[in-house]
Task: inverse folding
């Protein structure tokens, strides 16, 4: 079976700094040459926002070697639509851009579209994501629409990486909402991995071995232990993905 291929970005999708990420993906992804752009996580913000992210993705990848294609997956009905699912089949890359992580996970969990993506990962399709496209992948996904801490910020994630919580935008979170980093950390149950990714920073890898690309740092937190990595550094951590639907 081909090795898994992941590119997980803290922020800045479709910007010039990601060219090294694109090159890394191109060398490893298998498929028909299409990169599928899915701004699904931004759908609650309206069609204008969804379409803006779609245009940015198309313009970015038209400058490269891959063939960009926007997939109109906005809700669970779309995720069960035969035509949408068929468009996922055979692609080289799926790219989920930013928005609400909890909404993205809720939209995909248990759907034919998510099953097709998991099948694609097993044959060598690359998964690329930024912001919500990363924060949704673990055990829990933060609900960025929730403004009442008493109601809890975490919702079920896609569990592609079990017992793991991904936290993009890490270096900027407290500038968005004071105390947000501490709120997110407190919402993670004991015994889980926390992977923090700064803005304009990515980790690329196969689920077990990772390399940092970009301007910031990546942290892996296990209890009281934290390891920090910078651009060009590689690390191995037990974050192996589960490419079959979680029970």
Result:
């Amino acid at each position: 079976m081909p090795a898994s291929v992941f590119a997980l970005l803290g922020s800045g999708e479709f910007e010039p700094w990601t060219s090294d990420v694109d090159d890394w993906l191109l060398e490893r992804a298998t498929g028909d040459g299409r990169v599928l752009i899915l701004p699904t996580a931004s759908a609650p913000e309206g069609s204008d926002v969804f379409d803006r992210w779609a245009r940015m993705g198309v313009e970015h990848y038209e400058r490269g070697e891959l063939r960009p294609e926007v997939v109109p997956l906005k809700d669970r009905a779309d995720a069960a639509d035969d035509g949408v699912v068929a468009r996922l089949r055979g692609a080289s890359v799926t790219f989920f851009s930013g928005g609400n992580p909890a909404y993205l996970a809720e939209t995909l969990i248990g759907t034919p579209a998510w099953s097709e993506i998991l099948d694609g990962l097993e044959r060598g399709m690359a998964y690329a994501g930024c912001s919500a496209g990363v924060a949704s992948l673990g055990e829990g996904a933060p609900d960025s629409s929730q403004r009442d801490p008493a109601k809890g910020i975490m919702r079920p994630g896609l569990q592609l990486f079990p017992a793991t919580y991904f936290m993009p935008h890490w270096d900027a979170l407290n500038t968005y909402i004071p105390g947000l980093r501490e709120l997110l950390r407190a919402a993670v149950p004991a015994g889980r991995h926390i992977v923090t990714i700064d803005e304009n920073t990515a980790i690329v890898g196969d689920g077990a071995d990772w390399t940092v690309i970009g301007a910031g740092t990546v942290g892996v937190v296990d209890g009281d232990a934290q390891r920090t990595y910078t651009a060009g550094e590689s690390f191995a951590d037990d974050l192996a993905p589960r490419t079959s639907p979680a029970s």
